[in-house]
């Protein structure tokens, strides 16, 4: 009997999917946009994923010169926020450029039974923190249709970063009518100007549950 699991908790069934958000080299220490302790989620997620029949990975996958990169706006510096046609955009260091080692999944991420990989942010003009909807809030990645086709009604989320891509994906899951829970100890945040507390508050208001890995049977 594995330790640390609540007695009586049922394992996630065929109508639940684990979404592993952006566990990529670029977001680990040594990457281009390191999330503090980002590497700590890898063993937690490897073990967690084994509990799920259904696993989907997202992958931040930017065109070179992406408009979310500060380098595309010579007057601005990384971590400043500018207005783009679709709304405010935090400017990031160049990261997760498609096809580069920085965009590859984290070394050591071991989820052979993952069924789908959703790439996002590949259009140069539009960012996509969410695995469902680009930052224009209109263009779909196809993930909503994929999950619906497979009869999935609930998603559990983990990965990087809690306050950006995990939170946006969880909020959009709710928009598409899915039950959603974020597995807090399988995530790490960036926390830019209070973004982490804000993200948890928005998720709570939207009905996203906040759970720990030990709660998954
Ligand atoms: C992310 C900032 C920029 C994330 C991706 O995965 O949370 N954050 N691109
Ligand atoms: Zn990005």
Question: What does this protein look like?
Answer:
The protein has 217 residues and is α/β, with parallel strands linked by helices. It has a single domain (16-215), classed as 3-Layer(aba) Sandwich (Rossmann fold). It is built from 4 helices and 8 strands; from the N terminus they run βαββββαβαβαβ. It has helices at 41-49, 143-149, 162-175, 195-205, and strands at 16-21, 54-60, 81-84, 87-90, 116-120, 154-160, 179-188, 209-211. It has a 6-stranded parallel β-sheet. A two-stranded antiparallel ribbon has the order 3-4. The longest helix has 14 residues, at 162-175. The chain starts with 15 loop residues before the first strand and ends in a 6-residue tail after the last strand. The structure holds pyrazine-2-carboxylic acid and zinc ion. Residues 22, 27, 60, 92, 129, 160-161, 164-165 line the site of pyrazine-2-carboxylic acid (VGL).
Provide the β-strand percentage band: 15-25%
Gross geometry = globular
Write down the overall mean pLDDT. 96
Q: Give a count of the beta strands, DSSP E runs of length 2 or more.
A: 8
Order of helices and strands: EHEEEEHEHEHE
Number of domains: 1
> Which parts are unreliable, with pLDDT below 50 for 5 consecutive residues or more?
none
Helix content: 10-25%
Span between N and C termini? 10 Å
Give the class-level CATH name.
Alpha Beta
Backbone structural class: alpha/beta
Q: Quickly count the helices.
A: 4
What do we call the CATH homologous superfamily?
A: Isochorismatase-like
Which fold does the CATH topology refer to? Rossmann fold
